[in-house]
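Sequence in, structure out. First:
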Amino acid sequence: METTRTEGMLGETAGNLEETISSLAGDVGMQLKGKAGELRGKAQQICADTSDLARDAMSSSPLAVLAAAAAIGFVLGALWASNRDV
């Protein structure tokens, strides 16, 4: 996951740089593109961090993770069933 985290950091930096340059030039479209690249990089970093946390949690306490997944599935199923128009 280190590769994904590094790619995210590079994408965030490139997007930030593009946003700064386009803001100096006054190009709003390019500025938005830079902001989108920055946010994509941040999201990629968060995804890498989350997958690392999930992997660590699974290896340290698999039963707790299984119980949490079952509880989340039950709640989502109950919400879905209560909103059906049958």
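Second:
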Amino acid sequence: MVPVEYYLLLSSALFCIGLFGVLTRRNALYFLMSVELMLNAANINFIAFSFQWGNLTGQTFALFTIALAAAEVAVGIGIILVLYRNFGDIDVMDAAAMRW
């Protein structure tokens, strides 16, 4: 049996990689992939604690998070297509510059 601490270490590493990607990347596709990494890190936490406590609540929340991630990707790809159509590039800083 694998201890829960290993799952937490894996989850924190995935979350840190995703956070680094969100904070440093300018490409919208990398941004979406980084957000997905952070959501997967949360899912690992949900399932690890669900397994530790012996109930299915964490696994249920993980399924809802997976469904939320699928909806987020669908909306995100639509936004990326609009960015590419309007600016010719998927750099998120171009769209952020329009606010000013």
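Remark: The two ends are 55 Å apart (CA to CA).
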